[in-house]
Structures are given as structure tokens and as C-alpha cells.
Amino acid sequence: MKMRICYLIAIAFFFLSACKGPGGVRVIKLGHGLGVTHPVHEAMVFMAKRLEEKSKGEMIIKIYPNQQLGSERELVELLQIGSLGMTKVSSAVMESFAPKLQVLSMPYLFKDDAHRDLILKGPIGQQLLLDGEDFWLRGLCYYDAGKRSFYTKNKPVDSPEDLKGLKIRVMESNTAINMVKNFGGSPTPVSYGELYTALQQGIVDGAENNPPSLFTSRHYEVCKYYSINEHTAIPDILIISTKVWNLLSDQEKQWLQEAADESAEFQYKIWAESVEESLAEMEKAGVTIVYPELEGFRLAVESMYEELNVTQPELAAVVAQIRNNQ
């Protein structure tokens, strides 16, 4: 804990007063944990370019990928104290900071892609982006993070029974932990940046993620089975510290929001291409890709919805809105 506090203080000092650069140029620093070939990183680069164009050089974004500035959770904490401007975070990780976002991590929540897009781009999704403002975090837009499925080292996952006895890496999300438990696996939170080594050393037997992330992380070099059960469609969220957002003029806020929205449209277009390319390249590398029957997986997690109705009726009401809005 002491080391963690020292780390945050050191980073905070580094970024102190970094919002304004030479000549009065507004500089916003954006850190994230993905590689530079990932579609989400490409979308951020697109956003930075569009912001510079819109503002005629008055605003720029500097991007620090590959966990240069810390893990996903550490970056969110830096946003909360205003020492970092922006980051990309999975909505699953945001559960601790914006509780209503938990609903987006529920398994088999959306009927299909069209239903998901309708929700995220509509009133429900836009309101959820603002749910973290009390915790100094404001969502600007969603990025498509595809659908998450299981990848494993020693055998494919054809049914929930195949997960019994397996240690499966999950994000720091209570919903993800409960989901893997309901499937019969042993959920094991591991930092994304440490996952390759954890797979190599047998600390975990597998993980779950979308095809581009599996490919760009090179986890497929260790895990040779990818079972496309598509249990969740958890979006990524581009967030900004409210402490930074509130420093911006109305014009600057407009420039930034427009650039973010345009980057989301760009990212949605390149994402589908990336999914196809990733699956093709992994097959070439010897990964066995299987498509299990989904009914058993759906039934295994239905109790999560029943539990939500009892323990968190407010969230259950949001889920009902989503499921009924098709």
C-alpha cells in the first residue's frame, strides 16, 4: 500500500500543472494499457488528430500506451485526483467508481449488436456515461470492445462443465468474478499487463477477452484454444477527469466531445475488420477456434439476474429497461 501511494504521488507531481503547455496550448495527457496496434489505440490517435484540427492547434492530446503510466485501475485513480487527463477503461473496471455501469457487464445482456448499439447510443447509455461524475470521472464515449470469450491453454471450453477446476483470469469486477463462478470456473483477478507471464507460469489456466485483444496481446502464443461463447459484450469507455473537464472552456469541451464522438464512429468501423483479421491470423498460428452451443452458458448465469432482482433492485430496473428496449 505504501509503495502504491508513493507511486501515485510521484505521478501526480509529474503531471502537476500539465494542462497548459507553452504558448497557452491546452495539453491533455491520455494513458492506457493497450498496445499501439490495437483498434482502440488507433481510435485515440484519430481523436487526437481531429482535436488538433478542430482547435487549430490550441488543444492537443498526448497518448501514453502500454501501461506506461500504470495499470487500468491506477490510471482511473490518477484521473480522480486530476493528475492525469484521460484514459480508456473497460466499463467492468468502472463498477467500483460508477455502480450502475455494472449492468453492462451482465452476461448475455444484449440480444444482438443492433440492440447493444441502440442502448449505448441512446438515453440509457448516455446517462450511464455520467454515472461516475460523483467520483470525478466523466464518460465521453463508448468504444466497441466486441464480445468476450474464453481462451485456454490445455483444452477447449465446449460447455460450462469444461471450466470446472480451471483458474480463469478476470478483470477486477465483482460481476466478472460471479459470472465465472456461475460457469464453474475459479475466477482469478490478474493485471492485464501481467497476464502473459501468469499464463506462461500456470498461475492461471486461461482468460476471457475479445479476438483483437487476444491477438495483439500475443496471449495466443500460450493459449491454443479459443472458445467463442461470447458471454459478454462489455464496452470500453473513454473517460476524462472532471477536474480537468471543469478547467475547459465551453468551446474546448465542444471540440473535445466532437473529436471523441468522431473517434468512436471511426473505431466501430475498424473494429469489425480487426476481429476478422485477428481470428484469421490466430488460426494460422495454430489456435483451435471452437463455437460451442450457447444454451448451457446462458442457463448457467440466469441466476445472476434473479439475484440482482433481490439484492440490487435499482440495477435490476436498469437491466429491465435494457432488455425491454429492443
Task: Characterise this structure.
The chain is α/β, with parallel strands linked by helices. The chain has 2 domains: 2-93 and 113-144 and 235-275, Bacterial extracellular solute-binding protein, family 7 (D-Maltodextrin-Binding Protein, domain 2, 3-Layer(aba) Sandwich), CATH 3.40.190.170; 148-233 and 277-324, 3-Layer(aba) Sandwich (D-Maltodextrin-Binding Protein, domain 2), CATH 3.40.190. The chain is 44% helix and 18% strand. It has 12 helices and 11 strands. It has helices at residues 2-15, 39-54, 72-80, 113-121, 123-129, 174-183, 195-200, 211-216, 242-245, 250-284, 295-311, 313-324, and strands at 26-31, 59-64, 86-90, 137-143, 148-152, 167-170, 186-189, 206-209, 225-232, 236-241, 288-290. It has a 5-stranded mixed β-sheet with strand order 2-1-3-10-4, with helices on both faces. It has a 4-stranded mixed β-sheet with strand order 8-5-9-11. A two-stranded parallel ribbon has the order 6-7. α6 links the parallel β6 (167-170) and β7 (186-189). α2 packs antiparallel against α10 (250-284) and α11 (295-311) crosses α12. The longest helix has 35 residues, at 250-284. It is globular and about 60 Å long. It starts with a helix and ends with a helix. The model is unreliable at 12-18 (pLDDT under 50).
Oligomeric state of the chains?
Answer: single chain
Q: Mind telling me the C-alpha Rg? A: 20 Å
| CATH class label of the largest domain | Alpha Beta
3D shape = globular
Please tally the β strands and state the result. 11
Query: How widely separated are the two ends?
Result: 45 Å
* Domain unit count: 2
